[in-house]
Amino acid sequence: MLEIEEYFSSGISAYVKEVDAINPVYEGIVIRCGVDFLDTPYSRAVLRAAIRKVINRIIAPWQQEGNLPVLGYSFNLQQLHDRISEMKFVKNITHLSVVRLVQENQDNTHRFKEYSELTDTICPSVPYAVLVPVREHLINQQVNKPFGIEDMSIHEHFIIWQDETGKP
Questions:
Q1: CA angle 108, 112, 118 (to 5 degrees)
Q2: For residues 130 and 19, which has the higher predicted lDDT (pLDDT)?
Q3: pLDDT in tens, 11-26
Q4: Which residues contact 150 (CB under 8 A, 6 or more apart)?
Q5: Distances (CA, A) of 85 to 33, 78, 99, 102, 121
Q6: Helix H segments across 41-86?
């Protein structure tokens, strides 16, 4: 980061006091989706994988194309709903919500926020953040209650809180 700061410092106005280069913040996005499927010869696992691919493209369109992440990119629930509804094997969407997982500060504490209105826009918490999809979304699981600990999985989006003493 120091090299980047030095590079930009050499060519900027004298009125700029300081150049500070920082790493982006990556915020995990979990989709909770209840879907009724039409009759099809494909297994439910194949259908969920197809939905997962569409979801990931909405969350991070740059990712599948091998491009660089886009700082500040946002999307809304209506876009997600429309894209899933357009899939030929989707009969009905019974539930759709987005959970954004955000790391707080440098102390590894996390918070999450769930969005469930079609008019909600999901945007990063800071301008230098990048939204990234988690490995597994919650498709056709029990989604009639708010996101909670029973929806999380270790090494994916499970957050263990510690108090000031470092004890869980």
A1: 155
A2: 130
A3: 787 787 787 778 888 8
A4: none
A5: 12, 10, 20, 28, 18
A6: 44-59, 61-64, 77-85
pLDDT at residue 82 in the model: 97
Spatial distance between the Cα atoms of 165 and 113, rounded to a whole number of angstroms: 26
State whether residue 104 is helix, strand or coil: strand
Q: Which of 122, 20, 134, 10 is nearest to 75 (CA)?
A: 122
Q: Which DSSP helix (H) or strand (E) runs through 111?
A: strand 109-115
User: CA-CA distance, 43 to 140, in Å (whole number)?
Assistant: 13
Give me the mean pLDDT over the 22-50 stretch.
90
Q: Rounded to an integer, what is the distance from CA 54 to the centroid of its chain? A: 13
Structure tokens at 96: 């759709």
CA angle 87, 89, 94 (to 5 degrees): 85
pLDDT tens, residue by residue, 65-103 = 889 888 889 999 999 999 999 999 999 998 899 988 887
- Give the pair of three-digit tokens for residue 141: 């699981």
Cα distances (Å, whole numbers) of residue 149 to 68, 111, 127, 146, 153: 32, 12, 28, 10, 8
d(CA 49, CA 142): 18
